[in-house]
Amino acid sequence: MINFNLLPAKKPTFYYIGVSTTKSSIMRVFPKWAEYLGIGGTQIVGIDCKIHDDPKVYRRIVEFIRNDNNSLGALVTSHKIDLFKATKDLFDHFGAYTNLLGELSCISKRNRELWAHAKDPITSGLSYEAFIPKDHWKKSKGEICIMGAGGASLALTTYLIETMSKTEWPEKIHVTNRSKSRLETMKNIHSQINPGIKFEYHYCPIPEDNDEIVGNLNQYSLVINGTGAGKDFPGSPLSNAVEFPVNGFAWDYNFRGDLMFLKQARAQEKAKKLHVEDGWVYFLHGWLRVIAEVFHLDIPTSGPKFKKLSKIALQVK
Q1: Cβ atoms within 10 A of the Cβ of 57, count?
Q2: Whole-model pTM?
Q3: What DSSP state is assigned to residue 97?
Q4: Residue 90: exposed, middle, or buried by beta-carbon count in 10 A (0-12, 13-18, 19+)?
Q5: Of 39, 111, 280, 284, whose CB has the highest number of CB atoms within 10 Å?
Q6: What is the pLDDT of residues 26-73, one digit of tens each?
Q7: CA distances from 288 to 40, 149, 177, 189, 209 (A)
Q8: What domains can you pick out in the chain, each with its CATH number?
Q9: Which residues contact 256 (CB under 8 A, 6 or more apart)?
């Protein structure tokens, strides 16, 4: 059952389709961003659904957005795959990556036509480029280890495959996950698009399994928490006994929650000369790329305007 009455919107409305939307800082950030971006009359409304909700629920939501004149579009989290499967036939057009990944993170309208977009490869790539030096892999034998084979990790690996030239490839990319099915899905998609980057897929049901993969990485490697651990539920995909790679990078997609992975990385930050990155920039790009699409705005991905939007968000988050 959704927490939304599906009555016609009385003014321009942007939706956030998630699980516990009222707890998100975006509910406070968006009105300030809207004012700065010149769309200040727009409201943001959260729509909460159960994880793996009834397909009929997803269809009701998308049909409502499609048919309501004041409903401009939506950002989708937690339901990207399920919502896409249930509503694919309701869309007129699909953006890049949507059909390949079988998910959507953004709903928008163009000339009364409904569009589905998978923005995560773009937003994860922008976030990755914000802290990984452009020539890092060329200069090192570093590897990448992504813990979690969900949608965000699939998006990042798709971005890396699609955009990196051979001179920018890491030595290897490891992907670990607690279930085998997600790994198989990712492996199948990679087989369709991978130009030759070395991948290894590891079934790691317990943190100690991830510890072993991370502990054997080369120096200068990147370790990513792409799981819900630390945000959606307490903990980390690693145990406290893990050894991070010297001169490496530790990146958590999350920026709120108990953030245990970040605490583990920061405990070794000085000794291992680690660069530790949280999910704040990912949050910014994730929302701003969708807002740019829904409102047909030119929002830069760096520079003074982007920094101003970041500052606005930090002041109210």
Answers
A1: 18
A2: 0.90
A3: T
A4: middle
A5: 284
A6: 999 999 999 999 999 999 999 999 988 999 999 999 999 999 999 999
A7: 15, 24, 29, 27, 36
A8: 13-118+281-316 (3.40.50.10860), 122-278 (3.40.50.720)
A9: 25, 231
